[in-house]
Hints:
The structure holds 2 protein chains of 2 kinds. Chain A is an all-alpha fold. Chain A has helices at residues 9-32, 40-48, 55-89, 101-116, 121-142, 145-150, 157-180, 184-192, 200-227, 231-236, 241-263, 269-281, 285-310, 318-341. The radius of gyration of chain A is 20 Å and the shape is globular. Helices cover 76% and strands 1% of the residues of chain B. Chain B has 14 helices and 2 strands. Chain B has a two-stranded antiparallel sheet with strand order 1-2. The interface between A and B is large, with 46 and 49 residues.
Amino acid sequence: MFGAVSPSSQKLLFRGALCLAVLLAGFVAALALGAREVPLPVVWQALIRFDASDPLHGLVQGLRLQRALIAMACGAALAMAGVLMQSLTRNPLADPGLMGVNAGAALAVVLVIWGLGPQSVPLLALAASIGAGSAALAVWVLAGGIAATGAGGLSIRLPLAGMAISALCLSLVAAIVLVQTESRALYRFWMVGSLGQSDLATLMRVLPFLLSGASLALLIARGLNAMALGRDIATGLGTHPALVAVAALLAVTLLSGGAVALAGPIGFVGLIVPHVARAITGANLRQSLVFAAPMGAALVLLCDTLGRVAARPSEVPIGLVLALIGGPAFMLLLSQLLGARR
Amino acid sequence: MRTLLLASALLGLVLLSLSTGRLWLTPEQLWSGLRAGPDGDLLLWHLRLPRVLAGVCIGAGLGLSGAVFQSLLRNPLAAPDILGVSQGAALGGVAAQVAGTATMIGAGLGGLAATALIFALSVSREQGLDPRRLILYGIGCGITCSAALSILLIRVGEAAAGQAMAWLAGSLNAITWQETWMAVGALALGGLVLLPASRILDRLEFGDDPARGWGIALSLWRPFLALSAALLTSAMVALAGTLSFVAFVSGPLAHSLSGGRVTLWGAALCGAGLVTLADIATRVLAPSALLPAGIYTALIGAPWLVLILYQKVLRHS
């Protein structure tokens, strides 16, 4: 899985164009479909020549566009965080949702809101990042830390540690949300994640977190690539394993903290996308990261559209749609991984 | 001796649970209320007693089946709530409710199906049963089932959302005498089947091959015990939802309290105590919100899992 041959740059370019085409199709579908269908020409009109008097234009520009943008930002961030976590833990089952990182971020945000009252968005994103970072660190230590990064084999401890941390965080979140309010929408947002609770202004405030996380991820990709060869070789190549690990954790923290601040704890994006990205790009981590971002964005967009179309006029929260796809994907992945080692 | 101590501790918890709530009872009030009978004290006999009794039975059933799973697979992590059996049962139960049949039957079928699935996936002809594979597959099974359950509950409608939460988290808030008697019956049946098996489980601790040497038909006993324990878990889930981590914590807790033997009795008592404790917490800590008891059991159980994993990390380094 980590040893695939890198394809030629021409092929990569073609595949990249394909990814972008899927993303574009998903974007158009997200704008056009939903509780009320908007014909494609009207979508185009709404984007190019916005007419405030037309309710359809208002729907596309006002609600669906911001929702689609938020979905894309979350998907890209979570997919990149997943690539980083899988590389750092050497475990193909790592995912910010399953490993409790998103749950830790949610807990931090809920704690801040509960203790200090409503806060500004950057502060909440910061809190989410700190929570995500603590949870990621805890899971990483429980799964064996830096010693496990070099070791091969499928660790059973990582999924269990993730389960423990996310159960702990989510039950605290549930307790706080239920004690504080009776709001089911809020409960759902913080337990499974859903789009449509935040607006464009929130996205703009959270974007610096996501962008800095993404650039940090691209910066340390070379170090993580070297660490994939084993600790000794990595040190020989001039990387500091501990430094790279800390930087990777920081990037995961920023990416999933930002995503949680936008849409609550969404899982499985970071589990599924890295495998597809690796199949496309081979072992090169930086290319995987670059490919994972549009693919994660497209996955979240498509799942969100699916959730809105399937339960018209209401909607299935994005976290649940993804879980329904991601659960069987998890089982499939497992049977492949375990079958290969048999 | 230790079992007796545990039992008396449980009795104390039960009495405490009976007297706590929005209206606190003094010991004299409790005693006179209990003596007054069903017609004399409505609060005690119609609200608190069924709830507390059901909690004890459900906790005991979960603890018992958890301990059976754990010693059957020789792994403290192999509890039904980690292996996805509870989640399968919850999914089956809700599906049965939606379809209009008895919850209990659906939950039983769901739990059995989940157990059969993960066992079938993790048995290979050459290596026999691999508990590590079983746990990994179980985690995946649990994730899938709880996602499907959430979707199902949303399709049912917004009105069911409150009940949905109770199902997902495990709650004793809606228990009546009818459910209590069902819990008692399920526990009695499960106990009759599983408790006599403790000798076989004791020998299984030594490994598959020694157990075969003792003349235990492993290929027969293991599926039988696993499916019976899964059924017991499912019955309890049908009554109160997935009280997470009760089945997981009870076995190891009893193990460490009783000094290293497989004690199914101890595990049952610990489970009962845990659920009773969580139920007390529900009514004392946030009486207006009536949080599902499963939240409190998760708050006890998840740190326990962290502790087990942390000890393994320490042992490695």
